[in-house]
Specification:
- With about 400 residues, the chain is mostly beta strands.
- A 5-stranded antiparallel beta sheet has the order 4-5-6-7-27, with no helix packed on it. A 4-stranded antiparallel beta sheet has the order 3-2-1-26, with no helix packed on it.
- Strand 12 and strand 13 form a beta hairpin.
- The chain has a single domain, classed as 6 Propeller (Neuraminidase), CATH 2.120.10.
- The chain has 4 helices and 27 strands.
- The two termini are about 30 Å apart.
- The longest helix has 18 residues.
Length: about 400
């Protein structure tokens, strides 16, 4: 083909092709292999794919679950179309059998996804540690080294929170690790938090200076950080130390809630205030909403007022501007948990019945129509946007499977 078309034309053609085709074309000739594996081509292909998807409103969602019936817990991952029909695009080939050792399987869970990469953490005895970064589209994984030890004390429980995202300034993918050690001392300084950052480009961990870590930042919350607009976000409480009479120890909490942000490019922390009416509400959570954030206020079910149940949805219309919070709509549904939002406007929910079984629902807030998807054989725990990419193809230490 190079005899008939200039190289720059060939590159413009290749950069518009899907990932599966490009992987096949790496065996056509050495020049195509060299081109497709270069970092500039990989980044150009990613940007072209994202632009095409946005222009044609064609998007994918990654859905992850583990088996509810199998004796050995096994992970399952699917790609679904981000559309009202929510049809299955493909089931991802699970590479984790290569980590089986002496009939034991790593307990791996998705902690985040970005630009076609999926970051997974290993959990063991309530201790979590980021384990690998996976690109299912090209079937490659990059192993993460063990993070440096933060605390040597075994007396008090350590809490961890992990987030994953993209540093656009340096074209790098990073893992945020927050580790907190809480003891029964009333001194605020004894509530110690260490922040570590892993860089895929460097292949190493580093610890941030204690001077840049906010005093209110604490690990161990129930939510995974949401990656939006170049930053990771968690819902935090102002640090107030009080004595828990039931546990007979000092604990932190009690203050107003706010959203803590961590910019992956500058590696600096920031804050976003939430609506004043919700700052003392302990039943709130946050979620990605397009390129901004949603705040979900859960309501306790009251048999005397069954219509006033479910949750309220607030949206930050202009990212970073606290004055732009608006109330969007209310979802009236008993024992329903918001799982995430589709680009088509529908809300994905997990509904739990009286016997503890759950099912996944897709709700159109305008028409109030509900569609059931998934099966009771799986326990779904993660959903986020996904784009097929070549990222990791140029990574020297990435393993093929």
């Amino acid at each position: 083909m190079s005899e008939y078309l200039p190289e720059e034309i060939i590159e413009k053609i290749l950069v518009r092709l899907p990932v599966k085709s490009l992987i096949k074309f790496t065996v056509v000739c050495k020049s195509w292999l060299s081109l497709i594996k270069t970092s500039p081509f990989i980044q150009s292909h990613l940007c072209t794919t994202i632009d095409f998807n946005n222009q044609n409103d064609v998007h994918l969602l990654l859905l992850s679950a583990y088996s509810a019936k199998e004796s050995i817990c096994s992970e399952h991952h699917w790609l679904h179309w981000d559309s009202p029909e929510f049809g299955e695009y493909s089931k991802l080939l699970n590479p984790f059998s290569i980590f089986e050792h002496k009939n034991k399987r790593w307990d791996l869970r998705v902690l985040g996804t970005c630009n076609g990469l999926v970051c997974l953490e290993r959990t063991h005895d309530w201790v979590c540690s980021p384990a690998l970064i996976w690109n299912p589209s090209i079937r490659k994984i990059a192993m993460l080294p063990t993070p440096p030890i933060c605390f040597t004390s075994a007396k008090y429980r350590k809490y961890t929170t992990h987030g994953f995202g993209y540093d656009s300034h340096s074209n790098d993918y990073k893992v945020l690790r927050v580790v907190s050690l809480c003891d029964d001392h009333s001194d605020l300084s004894r509530f110690t938090t260490v922040v570590q950052v892993y860089s895929l480009a460097r292949g190493t961990w580093k610890s941030l200076s204690a001077s840049v870590v906010p005093v209110d930042l604490q690990a161990g919350g129930p939510e995974r950080p949401d990656f939006v607009n170049g930053s990771l976000h968690t819902l935090e409480f102002r640090l107030i130390v009080y004595h828990d009479d039931h546990l007979d120890q000092h604990r932190k909490g009690g203050g107003d809630m706010f959203i803590a942000s961590f910019n992956l490019s500058t590696e600096e922390f920031g804050e976003i205030m939430i609506p004043e009416i919700l700052r003392r509400d302990r039943s709130c959570s946050i979620s990605r909403y397009g390129e901004s954030l949603a705040l979900i206020k859960d309501k306790d079910y009251n048999s005397r007022d069954p219509a006033n149940c479910g949750c309220d949805i607030w949206v930050l219309k202009e990212y970073g501007v606290a004055e732009s919070w608006i109330f969007l709509f209310n979802i009236v549904m008993v024992e329903a948990t918001v799982y995430g939002f589709k680009r088509c406007g529908e809300v994905v929910l997990k509904e739990t019945d009286d016997v503890g079984q759950s099912r996944m629902l897709s709700l159109d807030p305008k028409s109030k129509q509900v569609k059931v998807f998934g099966t009771k054989d799986h326990i779904y725990y993660f959903m986020d946007t996904f784009v097929e990419s070549l990222v990791l193809l140029d990574h020297a230490n990435a393993i093929s499977y």
